[in-house]
Amino acid sequence: MVSPGHSAGLRDVVGSRFLLKLLVDKEIKVRYRGSVLGLLWSYVKPAVQFVVFYIALGIFLGLEQSERNPAGLPNYAIYLFSGIVLINFFTEALSNASRSIVTNGGLIKKIYLPRQLFPVSAIWVSGIHFLPQMVILVVACLLTGWTPSVLQLGTAVLGFLIVALLATGLGLIFGAVNVYFRDAENFVDMLLMVATWASPVLYAWTMVRDQLGQTALQIYLLNPLTIGVESFHFAFWMPTAEQTQGLPPSFLSVWVPIGLVVSILVVLLGQLLFSRLEGRFAQEL
């Protein structure tokens, strides 16, 4: 017997695809209600972020390879943007998923529907915003001679899956905890502030190895975000750069599978915690 207010977990999301579509449509409409640019903000925000980071890090701090700085990263613009699009997906997905239950409190108190739909719909909305940025990235890569292999494209898909699963699992955890402790929102904000710098979005992974040593690099690679970002670099940046620093040792054979396993474990943990807490959502809200 299933207790009232409980669901079958993420399996109910699969069986409620129509409701999921309605929630995604609602989120898109509400977010851009009264907006002049609407979905174009999906292009504007990452573009501004890219320009700021590129000027500050690529030019001022010398991370872009040039005649005066041969030790920099070649084609740094592609390197930077390929990391930004993925980390932006993660930050938006987790931020919205962690607030999704509280934000939809009025609906949750009125009717019953699988509560996992709310964090999952937040992930899907972030995926919709991710697509226009990917289009820009692919076009930029093509203009710089992008000729990826099947292995590289497959690794990019796995990298995105790792990050999407991580965002889903953490979204379930913080979405549920936020109902009881609103401090969870502030914790997520701090976590997301660190996320960009805790993965090789703005700098090369070799800097971690050179400055902190091999042991620190192993710990650094346990972060699924690091695996996802480096997977995107492998797929989009490396085919456009004549000389690169290469992948971390055993990246494809060891670290990508580890990143996938870690993200799946986070989803399972998130589902377990969500199921334990969802019974009192309506009362707490």
UniProtKB/TrEMBL annotation:
GO molecular function annotation: ABC-type transporter activity
Keywords assigned by UniProt, alphabetized: Cell inner membrane, Cell membrane, Membrane, Transmembrane, Transmembrane helix, Transport
All residue ranges annotated as the ABC transmembrane type-2 domain in the record: 37-277
Membrane topology: Multi-pass membrane protein
This protein's GO CC annotations: plasma membrane
Primary location group: membrane
UniProt record similarity statement: Belongs to the ABC-2 integral membrane protein family.
UniProt-recorded name of the protein: Transport permease protein
Source organism of the structure: Arthrobacter echini
